[in-house]
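Hi R.,

As promised on Friday, here is the backbone we talked about, encoded as structure tokens. Could you run it through your design pipeline when you get a chance and send me back a sequence?
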């Protein structure tokens, strides 16, 4: 193929929509809403693409009301189970046809694997794990993401190659959904390259996958202020009393007290609960990258200068063990 560049691209934002639990991933619906906002900023049209082995009624309803102008639904049994290279090949074909100026995908394990695989044949790049998106006065996508270990937020543009591809982390666009009637267009997948990957067995995840897709309403995050491994049970009990999922900062993973899949932050996962309670977490920039979508934050720390207390809706300067004692 001949890669297309800025002058050849359509003023179109294409969203890679992703299936989840028989429906559509909530992050895809957030991306659809964000695409509409960006389209208004830069005078773009919007479209989505959805690859499925078997389109469920729930997915069809969600796609039909996601708010994009149209969604291309490619139904083909080769799309299930998920094989990244097949989804990427189909996405490349779709991009070659529609020639979007911007292509957005979720920073889920699926989106993170498909986006770069598609970028290579399209001869463009990917800005991975964005935390914010905007369109500048020239109509370029401004992609914000933490850089240099989270020490600064980089604003990245792709001036020449098209599409400008960005993956976006879960939770950071929470509330962006903009439901509205969407025209569904059905198409065949056509010839796809033979997959080099063969799925032998699908194992059910026990939550150790590290997916950024936790829908916990309430979350408790434990940090370096926890004194001993034996104390973890106390906080798990507190989590149970509050019906809160228990996570940790990286320091507790390094101490070997939690698996990496429970780590929140830049090199961990993102969560976006209604209420987040942190216990003994200082609030490093790397940690904060994982909690941007949290609606309300209650932070417990003995150090009045701890950065987390500055961003907390309810900062509590006290001993975390005193707080845990309230939940016997
Ligand atoms: C490239 C890179 C990526 C990283 N990615 C991540 C990441 O994804 N996630 C992450 O978390 N970190 C990450 N880090 C590490 C990060 O920089 C911090 O070291 C880490 O977040 C510190 O964890 P913490 O705040 O829980 O622990 P600490 O820094 O040890 O802070 C403990 C806090 O607990 C308070 N405290 C102590 N005792 C009590 C008590 N009894 N009651 C109440 N408060 C108390 C202290 O005042 C202190 O503020 C990364 C670092 C790098 C360089």
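Update: got your reply. Pasting your designed sequence below so it's all in one thread:
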């Amino acid at each position: 193929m001949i890669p297309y560049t800025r002058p050849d691209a359509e003023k179109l934002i294409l969203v890679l929509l992703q299936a989840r639990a028989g429906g559509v991933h909530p992050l895809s619906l957030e991306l659809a809403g964000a695409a509409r906002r960006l389209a208004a900023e830069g005078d773009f049209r919007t479209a989505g693409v959805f690859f499925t082995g078997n389109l469920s009624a729930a997915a069809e309803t969600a796609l039909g009301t996601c708010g994009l102008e149209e969604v291309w639904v490619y139904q083909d049994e080769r799309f299930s189970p998920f094989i990244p290279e097949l989804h990427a090949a189909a996405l490349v074909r779709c991009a070659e046809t529609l020639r979007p100026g911007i292509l957005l995908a979720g920073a889920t394990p699926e989106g993170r694997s498909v986006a770069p695989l598609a970028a290579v044949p399209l001869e463009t790049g990917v800005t991975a794990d964005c935390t914010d998106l905007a369109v500048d006065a020239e109509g370029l996508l401004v992609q914000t993401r933490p850089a240099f270990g989270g020490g600064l937020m980089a604003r990245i543009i792709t001036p020449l190659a098209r599409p400008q591809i960005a993956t976006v982390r879960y939770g950071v666009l929470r509330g962006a959904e903009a439901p509205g009637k969407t025209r569904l267009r059905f198409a065949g997948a056509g010839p796809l390259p033979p997959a080099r990957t063969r799925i032998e067995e699908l194992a059910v995840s026990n939550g150790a996958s590290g997916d950024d897709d936790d829908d916990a309403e309430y979350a408790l995050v434990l940090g370096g202020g926890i004194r001993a491994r034996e104390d973890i049970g106390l906080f798990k009990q507190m989590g149970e009393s509050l019906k809160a999922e228990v996570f940790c900062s990286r320091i507790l993973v390094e101490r070997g007290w939690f698996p990496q899949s429970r780590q929140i932050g830049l090199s961990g996962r993102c969560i976006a609960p209604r209420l987040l309670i942190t216990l003994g977490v200082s609030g490093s920039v790397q940690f904060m990258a994982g909690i941007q979508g949290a609606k309300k934050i209650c932070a417990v720390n003995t150090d009045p200068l701890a950065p987390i207390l500055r961003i907390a809706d309810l900062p509590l300067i006290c001993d975390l063990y005193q707080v845990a004692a309230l939940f016997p």
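One thing I noticed while checking it: Confidence is low (pLDDT under 50) at residues 206-210.

Thanks again,
M.
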